[in-house]
Amino acid sequence: MDIFALSPEEFVEKIGTGTIVHNSGDLFGDHLRAVQRVLKEWNYGKDLELAGLFHSIYGTEGFQDFQLSLNRRDDVKRLIGERAEFCAYCNCVMDRVTLDATLSAPAGKHKIMARPDVGGHEIALTDQQFEDLITVHLADWLEQVEREAAKINKRHGWLNKGDAWGYRRSAYQRMAELLGGPAQETYKTVFAREPQSSRHISQAYTPKLQSWSGRR
């Protein structure tokens, strides 16, 4: 397959994302395209739209049922550009607690850590890279949280319907505040629909997941 003869959307489909069910219950490819659409609606530009399309292409701390090999980073860079690929890469490999921690860091001091299973290394972020990352990360969650909250997901510790609303609640709220504009408005709109019965729930961590063996 000559991937450079494909559009980014065609590439995502060709590598099999349409055969994998995402955490939210949709097909993985449908979720990727939906996050891309959210970012288009927010008018953050083509780079972040493509980062949204590829936001979990290498697998993430919260979703490992599909993992394009990190050995293919150069291919992805050539396909979508370095800015979009770096954002997607960070979203995939980061230990999310380190993203939540750096939300309070001053300008010029943002950094995250990769998870131990993908190297455990520090990744320093420019202010633009930090903004890119929280924009895509927030769009990803807002696109799916209502579907997640409508069901039980034992892998994430959500044993009752509605539990997903509390996942890293304060971190997502802070991301929305930092971004402002359409991202914050979407956050307010989505979370205004949360029932009162779950608004006390707060889960600050991401449980460890079992990797899928079918790496590409």
CATH class designation: Mainly Alpha
CATH fold name = Hypothetical protein af1432
Q: Could you name the ranges where pLDDT drops below 50 across 5 or more consecutive residues?
A: 210-216
Q: What number is the mean pLDDT?
A: 91
**CATH level-two architecture:** Orthogonal Bundle
Helix segment count? Answer: 9
Can you say what the CATH homologous superfamily is?
Hypothetical protein af1432
Distance between the termini: 14 Å
**Rough shape?**
globular
Biggest beta sheet summary: 2 strands, antiparallel
Strand content: under 5%
Give me the strand/helix succession: HHHHHHEEHHH
Instruction: Kindly provide the radius of gyration, computed on alpha-carbon positions and rounded to a whole number of angstroms.
Output: 16 Å
* Helix/strand/pairing category: mainly alpha
The tally of strands reads: 2
InterPro entries: DUF6817
Protein name: DUF6817 domain-containing protein
Organism: Coccomyxa subellipsoidea
Pfam family, one: DUF6817
